[in-house]
Each structure stands twice: as structure tokens, then as C-alpha cells.
Design a protein that fits this description.
The protein is α/β, with parallel strands linked by helices. The chain is 19% helix and 22% strand. β9, α5 (220-228) and β10 (231-236) form a beta-alpha-beta unit.
Length: 425
């Protein structure tokens, strides 16, 4: 092949790389946009502009930048984000002396994979890109079943009996927590009961069908899918939450026929993992724009000096995180994500979004209204709005607004927005 120094870079893996789980990119800074080099972490966490790095063989795309040394201010020798490197080395059985290829797809998208003719006796350390035989990143779809395994009639949308169906038709739902539920906000700032997730899954899917959670968080959707014998896949930006998902799943039923998978990736890349019209339910509780990304004053709580006082209830400060975005940008990003997910849904398959409205500087922020309008623009049809009545699980509510300003407590109820993909005419 012809030499394209602007498209490929060859990197030799050293013993230090294997030992420390990183890949040296010194000498290749010109290969990445200048704005992708940020500050050191000591310098107020000012990251550079993120670029995508597609990991061959792992069905993962990570977002990375390049940090700077706190003392010299020079770019560091490796990507700042490198929790993926050990998995990449292990998957490809890479050892010291092997080479990997970094391929530029566009300005902010790259692919990394082993060099196919990686014999170090053939490719010299000073090899040019003309000696590389690059391959496309592995983008195989997930190996997970999506067909029903029950004996229900083809026209039925779920496995429920008439008595259970009748309970679901009441438009106000209540749930209780159980011992397996996570309620510690230090583990995750926004969790919901397993019983809620089970009800949504059982209402809109059959056993064996596939549910998808684009913002899986602590993994409640996957736990409920395991309980109900549904296949499910959950995605999250934060590796710590995916590890929490896997821990919870390891304690579940290992003998049912369904599979649940937790993946570290951006929700914007989910369409790469599935064939079209294989998903029977999208069910999630997304970040609430940047409304949790603020210091808690506990004005609405009787015990104002509890452990949440002064804390910022956020998911992360990652620029890709919807929990850092103002409402307008958040709504647009949600529309882009779910617009890409729509073709994955079967016709008449449902998409259920759990969101609250919130108060910000004495104004009601109607997240549910913004999302309804945006989803309609993206091709979804609103079917139902269900109220999740949380009064039975909320403790120690204080007086908020008394005596001059009447404000309903947002913590006492949330919305379940039920959309579907319209039938194909």
C-alpha cells in the first residue's frame, strides 16, 4: 500500500507499556489535534477536546485526550484515559516488542489495532507506515438473543395475565425498595427500585426478548432483566458503574436462559452493537441535564445538616456526560442519541423514559415536556404518561416555600414517558 503518514502511525510496545498498561505516543503528538492536549490533572481538571478511539476486537469506543506534565507543562507520553489498555493487550495477546497501529479515520476519530505483520524482525523500530497492513476495526454485533422464548400468542405484547394487566392500566404507580436495591447516593446519585424496572420490563416484553438501557448506571435494569428472564444490555460512560453492574449481576440467577451485559461506552455509539429491529424495549432513567450538577442546600429537608449538605450530586464532570449540560443542549443530545436508537426498535416496540421535573432558581424546569417534543421530532410517538408516586418511599420532607410560595415537591413524584416506534405503514 502507499505510504500515508497522515493516516497511520506505528507504535512499538515496550516492557514498560505492558507493566504499566499504557501505550507511548511521544513522537506522535502531531498526529492528534492540538486542542486535544489538555492541562495536567493538578490544573483544575481542564481536559483537552476528546477524540474517539475505537478499540479493535473489544466492541468499545473510548474518549481520550492527552494530559500535560504538571511541572514541565509538556504533553505526557501516553493517553490520559488508559483503563482500557490492559483489556486491549490481553484480548490481542500483545507482548513487549509487538506493534500496534493507530489509524486516523477523521480529525477526532481513530482506530487502534495490532499490526497484522507484526514480526519484529520484519518491521524495524523505524518502520514507515508503508510496511503496515492495516485492517478495519472489528465491529461485530453483540452475540445476544432477542427472540421470545415463551409460548404466548404472536399478538400479545407481553406475558402478563389479565389481572396483572389491569393493575398496569392504573396511571399512577407506587413501588417499594427491597434489600438488593441501592439507595446510597455515594454509590450513584439517582437510583430507582428493582420493582419499578421489573414492572416496565414485564409490561413491554416477553421472556427472551431484548431490553436496552442506554444509561444503565448502577445496573437496576440488568438486575430486573435477570429476575424476569429477559436479555438486556446496559451502557454507561463511567467504568465504576459498569463494575457495580457486574457485581450485582454476579449475585443474580445464573440458571435462567437470558443474558445481561454491561458495557463501558458512550450512548452515542450504541447503534454499532445491534442489528436493526432487534430491540423490544428501551428503558432508562437518563441524567437530568445539569440539574444535579450543583451544590445541595437542602432547603426542602427538615434535617438540613445531613451528609448531602454542600455536596454536588453529579455523575461526573466528563464533557460527554449529559449530566453536565444545560437543558437546551441536553435535550438536543438526548434527541440525537434516541434518534439513532429508533431503528433498533421493532415497530410498535416501546421506549420508556423516567424523568422528573425540577426547580431551578424559583422556576420549574419541565424536562418531561422538552423530551416529549424532542422525541416526537425524532420519530417517536407518545403513548402514555405514567406518574410514579414516590410518597411512600420519601422520608423527612420539610416545608418548602411556606408561607408565601406554593411549590410541589419534585421528590414525591416522577414521570414515566412511554413512547413507541410507530407501526410501519
Amino acid at each position: 500500500m502507499k505510504e500515508h503518514p497522515e493516516k497511520y502511525r506505528l507504535v512499538k510496545i515496550t516492557p514498560g507499556n505492558i507493566r504499566q498498561s499504557h501505550i507511548y505516543i511521544n513522537g506522535h503528538y502531531d498526529f492528534f489535534p492540538e486542542e486535544c492536549v489538555g492541562q495536567s490533572q493538578e490544573f483544575d481538571n481542564q481536559y483537552g477536546k476528546y477524540f474517539e478511539l475505537i478499540l479493535d476486537g473489544l466492541n468499545e469506543t473510548i474518549h481520550a485526550d492527552i494530559g500535560r506534565d504538571a511541572k514541565t507543562k509538556k504533553p505526557r507520553r501516553f493517553f490520559r484515559q488508559r483503563s482500557w489498555v490492559s483489556r486491549f493487550f490481553t484480548h490481542h495477546k500483545i507482548k513487549a516488542g509487538d506493534y500496534v497501529v493507530i489509524e486516523r479515520i477523521n480529525k477526532y476519530k481513530y482506530s487502534i489495532y495490532p499490526c497484522t505483520n507484526g514480526d519484529k524482525n520484519i518491521i524495524k523500530p523505524c518502520a514507515s507506515t508503508s510496511e503496515i497492513t492495516p485492517k478495519k476495526a472489528n465491529r461485530k454485533k453483540l452475540d445476544i438473543n432477542y427472540q421470545r422464548i415463551c409460548k404466548c400468542k404472536p399478538t400479545h405484547i407481553n406475558c402478563l395475565e389479565a389481572k396483572e394487566w389491569l393493575k398496569c392500566q392504573i396511571g399512577v404507580w407506587q413501588f417499594s425498595y427491597e434489600g438488593r436495591d441501592i439507595r446510597d447516593k455515594k454509590m450513584h446519585p439517582a437510583t430507582f427500585p428493582i420493582s419499578l424496572s421489573k414492572k416496565v420490563i414485564e409490561l413491554f416484553t416477553h421472556e427472551g426478548e431484548l431490553a436496552l438501557d442506554p444509561f444503565v448506571g448502577s445496573g437496576t435494569t440488568l438486575v430486573a432483566a435477570n429476575d424476569t428472564n429477559r436479555n438486556a444490555v446496559g451502557f454507561d460512560l463511567q467504568e465504576k458503574y459498569i463494575l457495580l453492574c457486574k457485581k450485582r449481576l454476579s449475585q443474580g440467577n445464573m440458571f435462567n436462559k437470558a443474558k445481561q451485559i454491561a458495557i463501558v461506552d458512550d450512548a452515542r455509539h450504541i447503534d454499532r452493537y445491534f442489528e436493526k429491529e432487534t430491540v423490544s424495549l428501551i428503558w432508562t432513567s437518563p441524567p437530568y441535564a445539569n440539574l444535579l450538577n450543583r451544590t445541595r442546600k437542602n432547603k426542602s429537608r427538615r434535617d438540613r445538616k445531613n451528609e448531602q449538605l454542600g455536596k454536588v450530586e453529579q455523575y461526573s464532570q466528563d464533557k460527554r456526560d449529559l449530566g453536565t449540560m444545560a437543558l437546551e443542549k441536553y435535550t438536543k443530545s438526548m434527541g440525537e442519541i434516541f434518534g439513532a436508537l429508533l431503528p433498533l426498535l421493532r415497530p410498535k416496540a416501546h421506549c420508556v423514559i423516567n424523568v422528573p421535573d425540577m426547580w431551578w432558581e424559583n422556576k420549574r424546569i419541565t424536562i418531561h415536556v422538552s423530551l416529549i417534543e424532542e422525541f416526537r421530532r425524532r420519530g417517536y410517538e407518545l403513548r402514555n404518561i405514567i406518574i410514579w408516586d414516590r410518597t411512600n418511599i420519601v422520608n423527612r420532607i420539610g416545608i418548602f416555600g411556606w408561607p408565601s410560595n406554593y411549590i410541589t415537591m419534585g421528590v414525591t413524584f416522577e414521570y414515566l414517558l412511554d413512547f413507541w416506534r410507530p407501526p410501519i405503514k
